[in-house]
Design goal:
This protein has 141 residues and is α+β, with helices and mostly antiparallel strands. The chain has one domain: Roll (Thiol Ester Dehydrase, Chain A), CATH 3.10.129.10. It is built from two helices and six strands; from the N terminus they run αββαββββ. The protein has a six-stranded antiparallel beta sheet with strand order 1-2-4-5-6-3, covered by helices on one side. The protein is globular and about 45 Å long. The relative contact order is 0.21.
Length: 141
């Protein structure tokens, strides 16, 4: 398990754009990671998305999933940064609301040099709320 301080050592994201609170599982050999995000009404995006009907923007759910992948693949690469190259097969299935606990499950499917292909799902209460496939490149800062 990694806490928020360990997460911040591995990825460059910071408040208000750090969207993973804890890493629950990480298997470097299997190239798999499970992360957690506690969604609270205090999130900045709830001010405008949507007043009177707060839901977490889907793109931020996908970003949180990608950040978990970053924690997995960026260990030891302090002078590098991961950039999205492609997003595919994105599906949003259920809304995420204040009080929900997002569980991100992601895995690296393939890596060739600095190009990483990965996939994952985000869940609330065991139900998939979003899923996506990612391609990102690891580049110098």
């Amino acid at each position: 398990m990694l806490d928020i301080m360990e997460i911040m050592k591995r990825i460059p994201h910071r408040y208000p754009f750090l969207l993973v609170d804890r890493i629950l599982e990480m298997d470097v050999e299997e190239r798999r990671v499970v992360g957690l995000k506690n969604v609270t009404i205090n999130e900045n995006f709830f001010n405008g998305h949507f007043p009177g009907h707060p839901i977490m923007p889907g793109v931020l759910i996908i970003e949180g999933l990608a950040q978990c992948l970053g924690v997995l693949v960026m260990d030891g690469l302090e002078n590098k940064v991961p950039y999205f190259a492609a997003l595919e097969n994105i599906k949003f299935k259920l809304p995420v609301r204040p009080g929900d606990q997002l569980i991100y499950e992601a895995k690296v499917d393939k890596q060739r040099g600095q190009i990483v292909k990965a996939s994952g799902v985000a869940k609330v209460d065991g139900k998939i709320v979003a899923e996506a496939s990612f391609t990102f490149s690891i580049a110098d800062k």
